[in-house]
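note to self: dont lose this again. the chain is below, predicted strucutre after it. 78 aa total, dont forget to put it in the shared folder this time
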Amino acid sequence: MPIEFLREIADAELPLGVSDEGRIDKLRVLAAAGMVTASLPPAGTGGPAQVLTVTGLGRATLKVRELRRQEPLLMHSA
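---
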């Protein structure tokens, strides 16, 4: 899923090279959603991609997902 890949990207040192076609496809989705900025090869060429940044939207999305994951724990501790 692209969100799990986004977490990997956020934890990595940038810029990050990506050569796996499946990951490049996920990167295209993340870039189109405005969650990363990336240098992408033309579709179908098989060239490498490079992730340049995780945007504020990408980081906010990860934060919300983390908070939602913790929500049941917060409710039980209150």
